[in-house]
Amino acid sequence: MGRLIIVVGACLVWLALGVAPAAAGDTAVKSIEAVYTGKEKLKGQRIQVRGKVVKVNPGIMGKNFFHLQDGSGKAGTNDLTVTTQADVQVGDEVVVTGLLTVDRDFGAGYSYPIIVEEATVATAAGH
What we know:
By secondary structure, the protein is of the alpha/beta class. It has helices at residues 2-17, 32-37, 39-42, and strands spanning 29-30, 46-60, 63-69, 80-84, 93-107, 110-123.
């Protein structure tokens, strides 16, 4: 009974914070290239990615969109778009945690092969 209460309590905290736990065994921070190559397996899951903010488009459709790069990948697999309510600046080193969506089309020309949505943003350790 005590174990059930702890699990339920943890779930309530995650719900209150708007943060879902990552899938068991899948909590490692991924490279952007690894997200692209593993997108079919990772779609619909909460993932973590670390990188540098290289472009920010604030206030689009009630969200802040930004582009993240980590030095991995090549043209087409080296830039990840993220949506968040957090404020970020070009040059920030961050760790994002959010839902990976594949083939997202917002309409009006906003279409993405992959995008991390509803992300939380933390400053990368050591920066």
